[in-house]
Amino acid sequence: KQEVTQIPAALSVPEGENLVLNCSFTDSAIYNLQWFRQDPGKGLTSLLLIQSSQREQTSGRLNASLDKSSGRSTLYIAASQPGDSATYLCAVLPMDSSYKLIFGSGTRLLVRP
Amino acid sequence: SQTIHQWPATLVQPVGSPLSLECTVEGTSNPNLYWYRQAAGRGLQLLFYSVGIGQISSEVPQNLSASRPQDRQFILSSKKLLLSDSGFYLCAWSVFGGSKDGYTFGSGTRLTVV
Fold first, then answer.
1. Does residue A85 contact residue A111 with C-beta atoms inside 8 Å?
2. Which end of chain A is more exposed for a tag (fewer CB within 10 A), N or C?
3. Are B103 and A34 inside 8 Å of each other by CB?
4. How many C-beta atoms surround the C-beta of residue B61 within 10 A?
């Protein structure tokens, strides 16, 4: 059974710092991995989607990497800003017939001014 | 472009009352549709998913039901709400099961059962 773990559960950093959020999954048979952002009381906003054949994706100050064989992904945020404060969720799409996303429990990020 | 609409944004309902949450998708055909619930301090739980009109799969036995009366409409219902039904409900859609473009989520409905 696929399980997704995110470490750390919470993170507080000063503005301007570069930071890394970690995601690990137990079964490497996945179609893709997706990183989401959730602001308090809001829905999920997709940040980056990495297909299983890809190693990384970049969008602005965000860079996500995928090492499928080791079951790991990282989300790198450069030059963090207070507006980056949110919960970051990673999710994998298992390569079975279910097409159901499996989510991690998220990392709650606070960027202090 | 594809968009997803979910309403209402907030709902306060008494125990025992009925529930109807609606989700519609624009700009795509034959999407896979999903209902998730996010309880306070807990992760996202898949409740229902649908691969086509009238085709509903339930993930968790509960007090809720789902229907898909039209290709791009997904409804979450309950005949009698329980306190434990409180939570944040999210609708999502994908095409090709999400294998190509991933999932897109709506803005959510905050349900408080009192």
1. yes
2. N
3. yes
4. 6
The tokens 């009925």 sit on which residue? B18
In angstroms, the CA B96 to CA A31 distance is 11
Which tens digit of pLDDT belongs to each residue from A51-94? Answer: 999 999 999 999 999 999 999 999 999 999 999 999 999 999 99
A89 DSSP β-pair partners: A36
* Nearest residue of chain A to residue B35 (CA atoms): A100
- Contact check, Cβ <8 Å, B105/A31: no
Spatial distance between the Cα atoms of B58 and B35, rounded to a whole number of angstroms = 10
Rounded Cα distance, A82 and A31, in Å: 33
What integer pLDDT is reported at residue A47 of this predicted model? 97
Q: CB under 8 Å to B54, separation ≥6 — which residues?
A: B68, B69
Q: Where are the beta strands (DSSP E) in chain B?
A: 3-7, 10-13, 19-26, 32-38, 44-52, 55-58, 65-70, 73-78, 87-94, 104-105, 109-113
